[in-house]
Amino acid sequence: MRIDIITVEPDLLRSPFENSMMKRAIEKGLAEVHFHNLREYGHGNYRQIDDYQFGGGAGMVLMIEPIARCIEKLQAERTYDEIIYTTPDAQTLNQATTNHLSLKENIIILTGHYKGVDQRVRDKYITKEISIGDYVLTGGELAAAVICDAVIRLIPGVLGDETSALTDSFQDNLLSPPVYTRPSDYEGMKVPEILLSGNFPKIEEWRTEKAYERTKQIRPDLLDE
């Protein structure tokens, strides 16, 4: 999988990809991530990428021309399955979306900034818009990193145990059940006996029951879905 991220602040993005699981995925050749500084496609000596809104209003807007130049340059080099725009006024990222994206080969992520992008960018180039929550960030770089992390970890070979991702919260519209490790007794707080029994069919029944209970208590909306 190749992911190209178009950003106003590329330095904000580097650390997540230089550590931990995403670093290993890149080193194994399972994922490629490339940053493209939008200012390199800006106007004039000052590399202008933003301007005032037509009709007035607070906040600057990213211009269509620098974005179009960057996207069209990338499209001339390869075919992209999705061009994603990170913005709070979009559908919220969920596990189904990350599962879908993990099957793609080439993706562009355009990170929002300032007051957003000229609507014509969204109309002409964007194939999917994603929010990571009902709040506003300074820019879309952190949202892009969240999307990449959630997607790349699903690529076969990235996780040490590929079955681990299949038991994550939200994979089956349930939250994960409680998990325990050693010691089995900590100051009188004991691990449930069923988990020590070795009876794996019963253990799976217990985990499913607990997952349902937690979901009903914390996220009952998932059961409605």
Write up this protein.
It is a single chain. The longest helix has 19 residues, at 200-218. The strands form three sheets. Strands 2-1-6-5-7 form a five-stranded parallel sheet, sandwiched between helices. The chain has a two-stranded antiparallel sheet with strand order 3-4. A two-stranded antiparallel ribbon has the order 8-9. The chain is 33% helix and 18% strand. With 225 residues, it is α/β, with parallel strands linked by helices. The protein starts with a strand and ends with a helix. It has two domains: 2-152, SPOUT methyltransferase, trefoil knot domain (Alpha/beta knot, 3-Layer(aba) Sandwich); 169-224, Trp Operon Repressor, Chain A. It has eight helices and nine strands. It is elongated. The mean pLDDT is 93.
Give the helices and strands as they follow along the chain.
EHHEEEHEHEHEHEEHH
Task: Give the terminus-to-terminus CA distance.
Answer: 30 Å
Question: CATH-wise, what's the superfamily of the largest domain?
Answer: SPOUT methyltransferase, trefoil knot domain
Q: What best-fitting shape do the alpha-carbon axes yield?
A: elongated
Main sheet makeup: 5 strands, parallel
**CATH C-level of the largest domain:** Alpha Beta
For the biggest β-sheet, the strand order reads: 2-1-6-5-7
Q: Please report which band the strand proportion falls in: under 5%, 5-15%, 15-25%, 25-35%, 35-45% or over 45%.
A: 15-25%
User: How many distinct folded domains?
Assistant: 2
Helix content: 25-40%
How does the helix and strand content classify structurally? alpha/beta
